[in-house]
Write a structure and sequence with these properties.
Layout: E1 2-3, H1 5-17, H2 20-40, E2 45-46, H3 48-58, H4 64-73, H5 87-94
Parallel strand pairs: 1-2
Length: about 100
Amino acid sequence: MRWDISTETRFKSVIAKLPVFHRRIAEEAVVRKAEANAARRNAARVEEADVVSAFFSEVPLAFYSMMIRVLEQSGFDYRKHGLPLSDNAARQAGK
């Protein structure tokens, strides 16, 4: 599936800032979920909302603070997409 160029660039920036041993797993999980999110919207390409939602649903709760910091450093505005969820909602989403 095609990606919005700006979104893809920022996504790659996030992945590059993760600890080396987490990069491949995070990249695979988030790409798969982001593309599924876009497909569910019947979209032609993956956009910011798809990626942000994928990070928040696929990254374990224990890594949320690091993820939020890296998303912010890479220019993702997760708040405009209604994230993060409350801790309880986040735990439920992670199940």
